[in-house]
Amino acid sequence: MLTQQKYLSITGLTGLFNMSLPASFIDRLITSVNIVDVLSRRISLERRGNAYWAKCPFHGSGEERTPSLKVYEETGTYHCFACKESGNAIHFLRKHDGLDFMEAVELLASLVGMEVPKEQIKADLTNTNNINNRAEEIFYEQLKSSEGKDAVAYLKNRGISGDTAKFFKLGYSKKTKPNLYEKLSKEFDQNDLDESGLFGKNDNAESYDRFRDRLMFPIRNIKGDSIAFGGRLLTEKNDQAKYLNSPETKTYKKKYELYGLYEIRKVNKRPESIFLVEGYMDVIGLFQHGIKNSVASSGTAFTVEQLRKILNYSNTIYIVFDGDEAGQKASWRAAENALSLLREDTRISFIFLDSGQDPDSFIAEKGKDEFLNLAKNSVSFSDFFLNTIKQQDDLSSIEGRSMVAKFALPLVSKINNETLKQAYINEISSICDLDFSKLLKGNKDIQNTRSFTEKEEIKKTSNSVIRKSVLGIFMSLIQYPKLASLNEFGSISSDNRFLFVNEVRDLYIEDNNSAASIILEKIPNEKIKNIFGEALVSEINLSEEDAAIMIKDCIDLISQSSDKREEFLREKHQLKELDSSEKRELQQIILKKDKMSLEDTDLIKNLSSN
Ligand SMILES: [Zn+2]
Q1: Residue 63 CA to ligand 1 centre (angstroms)
Q2: How far apart are CA 70 and CA 35, in angstroms?
Q3: Element holding 231 (H helix, E strand)
Q4: Cβ(514)–Cβ(508) below 8 Å
Q5: How far apart are CA 276 and CA 16, in angstroms?
Q6: Which residues make up the environment of ion ligand 1, defined by Cβ < 5 Å?
Q7: H or E, element range at 380
Q8: Contact criterion met (CB below 8 Å) for 254 and 248
């Protein structure tokens, strides 16, 4: 029984998480967090009565005409009536921000000032992380050994102190034996080693070290586990890339990770601003000179996911680029990515260095104050955005202004924040001397013909008797968890199709103090989770007596529907139209009966013979 366990292994319940945390902690966290606060930082919410509504970010292109996502402050949950997505704040962050479970927990905890119990954090790592953590230690020891002297000389030459190297856990990968593979193959399974990203395979299927004779930069996730590495060549070799990165693995997804984020949060959990730079050495060089709030994308161009991630920790972001053409192009891509994330309180701006400069070389040459001056004189997002738009064509001609408007149209549509969107519409209308909002609306109408089919879909599913019955049962349980003890649940316990109803009931029996949003988190099946979510946001208030009646009636309806199902399948059988899964289903229905008639026995024989 879960309640008797001191620690709830969330893994066992949902298969989604690989972390153990006390259930009571998750409970406290979910109930302390205000879901409206979390969501309103990401999507725009509209208050109607007791609830909030938003255009759902999880289906379509986010261009719905009317809001379909309902957010219910009291229960801390949300539900979309179109795509059925529902959940609590943890669920939302995982899905919307692309965080893993622990990252979402860490983030919410930092919002409400709670401390995540640390003793559990190392408990249940995947082997991929274990292997990378071990590799980090080995590389680090090797840097300090005599074999690492070239790597140390390189760092000294770049002005990096031993303390800084230690803080970032820099290391050295050897070129001589015994290599990393020989060391780790004694400790870990071959399969796990294959998945760690640290080794390649030659034509004879023998493993070799991916990183040899390189300065090693461990890429750590927000919890501080090494999940991947970047390696820099110490001496230029024509046939090898200067920088080599781990490939993607189960735990390392490049588009989400930021080099240095774990480290700078060790200095300050919520830095006032964050510099987004391009290279590992930039992060380390800036740190050495006292700028302890920079992070780098790891082995990719900046992605929208990375930007969203750092906006969780600071509202002021400086994106630093080389001033050359590649830098200009990259900065425009970053601006496009930022559009959907803009809010009134986000301050994103750009710093363009002279061609050939990078943050590391700049600060080594000119020092911290000059670098901070760059931030003071940075180009604001809106200036950069509007200037780029203006440069698309000749604003003195009607044709030119139309082209500019056409260029801006899809970009402004990406802005989620209504206030900012309106501000940009006004700005572009005056630049192009036309009513840009009308254009934008026309564009939307074309894209939105789809929403009719969505409405059809909602009708179809909500009309289903079974769905309504299940909803009714869930609504009653949510309001009165102790009704889980009603005997009526037994009458559908053998019907395969409704096992989930009893699974949800069991969750309530195990812990009838659990908040509904916690029960929701524990439901493993997405579809069931979504029906439960719908029940959660429906604001029907029943008396306890009515709720009990509701459960009884709904279970009645469901069990009747299983009689009807049998009837339907029998008819179909007579017409010889049953497919194999329906045959199995009919067999199951009959076999579960307390008493089988002669007719039933014949039918079973018949079903299994063909
Ligand atoms: Zn949706």
Answers
A1: 11
A2: 11
A3: strand 226-233
A4: yes
A5: 31
A6: 56, 58-59, 80, 82-83, 85
A7: strand 379-380
A8: yes
CA of 461 to the centre of ligand 1 (A): 15
Name the one residue in this structure whose structure tokens are 């730079």: 277
Domains, in order of start, for the chain: 7-111 (3.90.580.10), 127-252 (3.90.980.10), 258-362 (3.40.1360.10), 392-447 (1.20.50), 463-577 (1.10.860.10)
State the pLDDT at residue 136.
96
Distance 48 CA to ligand 1 centre (A): 18
Which strands form 243-245's sheet, in the order they lie side by side? 171-173, 214-220, 226-233, 243-245
Distance 106 CA to ligand 1 centre (A): 26
Cα–Cα distance between 151 and 59 in angstroms, integer?
A: 49
pLDDT at 441: 72
Q: How far apart are CA 472 and CA 410, in angstroms?
A: 43
20 with 506: CB under 8 angstroms? no
Q: How far apart are the first and last CA of the chain?
A: 43
Q: In whole angstroms, what is the distance from residue 270 CA to residue 588 CA?
A: 57
**553: CB partners within 8 A, 6+ apart:** 469, 472
Name the nearest CA neighbour of 108 among 98, 93, 118, 96.
Answer: 93
Q: How many CB atoms lie within 10 A of CB 457?
A: 14
Quote the ligand 1 centre to 445 CA distance (angstroms).
19
Q: Tokens 């140390």, residue?
A: 152
Cα separation, 72 vs 594, in Å, equals 44
**What's the confidence (pLDDT) of residue 280?**
94
- Biggest CA–CA distance in the chain, Å, is 94
Q: How far is ligand 1, taken at its centre, from the CA of residue 526, in Å?
A: 13
Ligand 1 centroid distance, CA of 557 (Å):
29
Q: Two tokens at 406? A: 């056409």
- Position 457 scores a pLDDT of 41
CA 459 to ligand 1 centroid distance, Å: 15
The pair phi, psi for residue 468, each rounded to 5°, is: -65, -40
- pTM of the prediction? 0.63
Is residue 36 within 8 Å of residue 44, measured between CB atoms?
A: no
Q: Give Cβ neighbours of residue 101 (< 8 Å, ≥ 6 apart).
A: 10, 16, 17, 18, 19, 90, 94
Distance 58 CA to ligand 1 centre (A): 5
CA distance linking residue 502 with residue 588, whole number of Å: 18
Cα separation, 35 vs 76, in Å, equals 5
With residues binned 3-state (H G I as helix, E B as strand, rest as coil), the percentages for the chain, rounded to 5, are 55, 15, 30
**Which residue, among 518, 521, 516, has the nearest Cα to 538 in the 3D structure?**
516
For the chain, list residues with pLDDT below 70.
1-21, 23, 61-63, 118-126, 299, 442-465, 512, 539, 562, 610
Quote the ligand 1 centre to 19 CA distance (angstroms): 28
- pLDDT value of residue 250: 79
Distance 83 CA to ligand 1 centre (A): 4
d(C-alpha 321, C-alpha 359), whole Å: 9
3-state secondary structure of 116: coil
Beta bridge pairs of residue 226: 220
